[in-house]
Amino acid sequence: MKKLNISLALITMLALGGCAATAVEHNAKFVNDYALENIGANAKWHKNSRDRIAAREFAEQLLASPLQRDDAIKLALALSPTFQAMLSDAAAMSAAATQSARLSNPIFTFDRLTSREGAAVDIDIGRMLSVSILELIYLPARIKIAETLQTAARLRGALSVVELADNVRQAWVRAVAQQQSLAYAEQVMDAAEASAELAKRMYKVGNFSKLQRARQQVFYAEAAAQLSRATQSALSTREALIRAIGLDTSLAEKLLLPPRLPDLPAQLKSQAAIVEAGLKQRLDVQMAATELALVATKYGYAKAESYVGALHLAAIRNSETGDPAQSGVKLEFAIPVFDVGDAKRGQAHAEYFAAMQRVFATSINADSNLREQFAAQRVAYELSQHYRHEIVPLRKAIIDEMLLKYNGMLVGVFDLLADTRAQIGSVILAINAERDFWLADAALQASLLGKPAAGASSLNTNAPMSEAAAH
Question: For the segment 435-471, what is each residue's pLDDT rounded down to a tens digit?
C-alpha cells in the first residue's frame, strides 16, 4: 500500500509539471467570465501585440461617439494598462501557486578523491542520490494548498475587475456632471455680465446709485471666479476619467462625453433584496473564506512538520581502486532537541483562529456596508427627486411670473435677472444631486460585488509553504 501511495504521488508530481500554463489560462478565463456576467464587459488579457492592436481598434470604435457609462467600463477593461498589469500579476501568482505544489528535484552528489603512495594511485569515487521523503508524504497537503491559492488568485482577479469598474463608473459620473454644471455656470456668467453692463450704463446716466452698481459688479466678479473654478473642475474630472480608462494622448483627444447624466431610475430595489444579493456574491466574504481554508490546511501541515522537520533518503554507491564497490542507503533526519516545534504549532494555531475571526468580521462588515450604501443611495435618490420635481419647477414658475410682471412693467430688469440667476443655481444644485445619486449607486454596485474596505483580509500567495518545506 505504501508503494502504491508513493507511486500515485509521483504520478501527480509529474502531472503538475506541465499545468502552470493551463492554470494561468483557466484563471484568466474565470476573470473574463466574471466580468461578462457581473459587469457586462470582456476582461481580456493582452498576451501579444495582436491583442493590443485589437484593443486599440475597439477603443477607436467606442470613441467615435459620445462615451456612455457602460462603454467607458468596457473600454477600461479592454485597454487600461493598469488593469493589464494586474492580470499579469495574477498570472504570476497562479504560476507561483503551481510551483508551490511541486516536489524538489532529487539531489545528485559526486565525489572523486585521489591519494598517492609512491607510484601507486588510489581513486575513491562516491555517488549519492537523495530525495526528501517528507515532501512525498506531505504532497497531498501541498496540492490542496496550491488549489486554494489558485482560488485566491481568481478572486483577486475578479476583485480587480470590480475595483476598475467602480473607479471608471464614478469618474464618468463626475466628468459628465461637471461638464453639465459648466454649461450652466457659463449661463450664470452671461447673466452676471449683462447685469454688470446694464448697471454701469444706468450709473452713468444717474439712474443707479454707487451701491447698486457695486452689488452688480461684485456678482459679476464672483461669477467670473466661479466659472474659472468650474472650468478647471471640468478639466480635472475629465482627466481623471482618462486616467481611469487608460487613454493615451491620441485617444484622449477623441473623448466625447454625453451632454447630461442619465435619467434617474423609476424605482429602487428594496433593502432586503440588496442585502440578500450582496451577501451571496461579495468577493471579500469569499476571500475571507478562502483564507480560512488555506490557513486550515497549513495548520495541519505545520503541526505535522513541527514534529519532524526534515527526512531525507539517499542511495549511495562508493568505489575505490582495488576494492569492491560499496552500495547502500542513507537516512537523514533532524532530532528535536533544541527546537521541539511548540512555537511553530502555537503560531499556526493562532493564525487559524485569526483567519476564523476575520471571516466573522468580514461578514459583519459586509452586512453593515450594504445597509449603509443602500441608505446613501436612497437618500441621494430622494434628494435628487426633490430638486427635480419640487425646487426646479418652483424656480421656473417664479421666472414665468416675473416675466409677466416685467412685461407689465411691474418689476425691473434686475429683479428678473436675479431670479434667473437663482433658477440657474437651483439647476446646478439639481445636477449635483443627480451626480450624488449616481455616485451612491456606483458605490452600491461595488458593494454588492464586494469591494473590501481598508484592512480586509489579504491572502499571502508569495509564501505558500513554510521554509522547512523547501529543504
Answer: 999 999 998 888 888 775 443 344 444 433 433 333 3
- Predicted model pTM: 0.77
> What would the pLDDT profile of 86-111 be if each residue is shown by its tens digit?
888 888 888 888 888 888 888 888 88
Q: Strands 120-132 and 107-117: what pairing?
A: antiparallel
**Shortest CA distance to 298 belongs to which of 144, 137, 94?**
144
Domains of the chain: 2-470 (1.20.1600.10)
DSSP letter at 48 equals: S
DSSP 321: T
> Which residue stretches of 46-105 are H helix?
49-62, 69-79, 81-100
What is the C-alpha separation between 102 and 211, in angstroms, rounded? 86
- Beta strand 107-117 with 311-320 is unpaired
- Which residues pair with residue 112 across a beta bridge? 125
List of residues 6+ apart from 297 with CB closer than 8 A: 141, 144, 145, 148
Contact 366, 279 (CB under 8 A): yes
